[in-house]
Specification:
The chain is α/β, with parallel strands linked by helices and about 350 residues long. The protein has helices at about 15-25, 45-50, 60-65, 85-100, 120-125, 130-140, 155-160, 190, 205-215, 255-265, 295, 330-345, 355-360, and strands at about 5-10, 30-40, 70, 80, 100-105, 145, 170-175, 215-220, 225, 230-235, 245-250, 280-285, 305-315, 315-325. The protein folds into 2 domains: about 5-150 and about 330-360, Rossmann fold; about 155-325, Dihydrodipicolinate Reductase, domain 2, CATH 3.30.360. It is built from 13 helices and 14 strands.
Length: about 350
């Protein structure tokens, strides 16, 4: 007999990232969407009435009939996914965690708080230990708040994680970000068609700060950030999905190019099997003109990072390109993966993954 799945709530459920949460959670083996939360103008309507669905197909039938709740309502679901705007997330996420919910957030508001893990399981699963510190310091018994990074930071830290052992001294990052990263309706077509915007508000600072936190080490009480110098330039390009980042890096140990590629190709993080995780999080593409958003963003159902064009850099030593799907791996998909890791690690009260293994 199948086990009852864990009820989850989606904050910001009618927005573009909220819709991606709903799409990715359809048929999930452990979780089921039971509550959808929207703005005050959406509250009280059915989800199908409130949402302007911008993904392929229709909203899942079981979700379409749910009544949208207001953000200040009480929620029953133990697990909450947040796709809220920054201002709304800043206080509400902490309130829900204090009330006993496990909150996995895609919002930027609380990412850099000292006791909030900024997590990507294949990169820094050990940062989950910060939850124990968070609960002790804040007096939370069963609640927790975990964040995932800015969507453009994702391919950077994924590609760099296997190289940390060589000593990352300096980084120069230039992004080419898809329009979906700006949400819906996003950037004006008059600005975007036949154009590249050499400025994405707020993202350059996130690239420079979040990367150091994610690649840092958990010392038992806090995160010792990676000691490196990062310079970032963020641009918006006329691509629907998929953020491409051109990365130049100085490595202290100066490994051979072939050794770097081998590190990427065999990299598997020391984490348990999780339903949303690809077997290998990285792939290296040997074609001279890859990775490309249109051809490579769906690798591993959108959860892999594709790397290519590794070559010598006359300034820093090494340069290459890395690509991730920004609304799957870079947003909702990573939040779901974080929740799966929380479940396996026993941080969601009353939920045991072993029960699901026995029931199948």
């Amino acid at each position: 007999m199948a086990m009852q799945k864990l009820d989850v709530a989606i904050l910001g459920a009618t927005g573009a990232v909220g819709q991606r949460f709903i799409q990715l959670l359809e048929g999930h083996p452990w979780f089921q969407v039971s509550e959808v939360i929207g703005s005050s103008r959406s509250a009280g309507k059915s989800y199908s009435e409130a949402v302007h669905w911008v993904l392929d197909g229709n909203p899942p039938a079981g979700i379409a009939a749910l009544t949208v709740k207001a953000l200040d309502d009480e929620f029953c679901s133990p697990l909450v996914f947040s796709a809220l705007p920054k201002e709304a997330a800043m206080t509400r996420e902490l309130e829900l965690a204090a009330a006993g919910h496990v909150v996995c957030s895609n919002a930027s508001a609380n990412r850099m708080l000292a006791d909030v893990p900024l997590m990507l399981p294949e990169v820094n699963a050990e940062h989950i230990g910060l939850i124990d510190v968070q609960r002790r310091r804040r007096g939370w018994r069963s609640g927790a708040l975990v964040a995932n990074s800015n969507c453009t930071v994702m391919p950077v830290v994924m590609a760099l994680k296997p190289l940390v052992k060589y000593g990352i001294r300096r980084l120069h990052l230039v992004s080419e970000q898809a329009v979906s990263g700006a949400g819906y309706p996003g950037v004006s077509s008059m600005d975007m068609i036949d154009n590249i915007l050499p400025y994405v508000p707020g993202d350059e600072d996130k690239m420079q700060t979040e990367s150091r936190k994610m690649l840092g080490a958990f010392n038992g009480e806090s995160i010792d950030e990676l000691e490196t110098v990062v310079s970032a330039t963020c641009t918006r390009v006329p691509v629907v999905d998929g953020h491409l980042v051109n990365i130049s890096v100085e490595l202290a140990d100066q490994p051979a190019l072939s050794s770097v590629i081998a590190d990427w190709e065999r990299y598997q993080a020391p984490v348990p099997d999780l339903p949303s995780a690809p077997e290998y999080p990285l792939q290296y593409l040997y074609q001279i003109d890859r990775p490309q958003p249109r051809r490579d963003r769906q690798a591993g159902k959108g959860m892999m990072t594709s790397i290519g064009r590794l070559r010598e850099c006359p300034v820093l030593g090494y340069k290459f390109a890395a690509l991730s799907h920004n609304t799957i791996r870079g947003a909702a998909g990573c939040s779901i993966l974080n929740a799966e890791l929380m479940a396996v690690a026993g941080y969601i009260e009353g939920f045991r993954v072993a029960d699901y293994a026995l029931a199948t």
